């Protein structure tokens, strides 16, 4: 069993250590998120060590000291195990609001307390003086609490579906939930060992890579695609696929920044992007091209449809300022065989013409 444990955990241990170095030197995430990921890695390494020791003590007979040590390792497994998915929820929420109610921690506090008391009560587990392990009536509690936090993570992601790529993120989290759930079933019902933390470590690493990809391809402030994603999309479309493009530029942003501050300017930008994204067309993608410039691209919508979508978005823009929050736009069509940057230039020219007309209309009022 010891050799089996070494074989099972050798690769995950090395991978987690390398992963820890990668997180430590990362420049994309905030210090808080990096600390939470490093805490998650340390927790996984600790629980792997505890699981290994628990299996080691299980084969050491009925020595009195071994019985006490096995009580401790078993208790730690049950008491701390749900902290792993709980930390992942904290990582996710840090990128959204950073405000989790205190009731969020109650299930884990109850689980931790019950696990510790089980050393004497046998509620979740019991280890007899002869070193025989038995499950208690509340044995499912740690797994239930862990799955509760995983489901919370999925719900948090599903509630952000108005932002790009959240569907892929939610799909990944559901797959991770099923993977960890199947590993737990293999351990609980079929007696296989060292499954949960192997699968969990892989899921945590993949989750970090997913968040890294999102940092690169998506604009965190507006929820739109980034300039990098825009350039990749242009490479794919150029000379090949037909599409309709729109150049979008905010109006009065300089005045907003000068009069109310740059944070108000950011609010105006978010208000405009939210109005466009609210149209919920799965055939269009919005890219942040510059500070207050955006490019809308669709391979399915005609120019008239895109014009209708943007006019609706213009009507839905809002802002609590004396200056109105609005945007100008221009559209163009790209055909296969043409350079897509020509269509972008045409849309840009149309956008400036639209901006001039809006200024003239405002001056006439």
Automatic annotation (TrEMBL):
Residues 241-365 form the GGDEF domain. Keywords: Membrane, Transmembrane, Transmembrane helix. It comes from the Bacteria. One of its GO terms (molecular function) is diguanylate cyclase activity. SUPFAM superfamilies: Nucleotide cyclase. The chain crosses the membrane at residues 6-25, 37-59, 71-92, 104-126, 138-158, 170-190, 196-218. NCBIfam families: GGDEF. This is GGDEF domain-containing protein. The lineage of its organism: Bacteria, Bacillati, Bacillota, Clostridia, Lachnospirales.
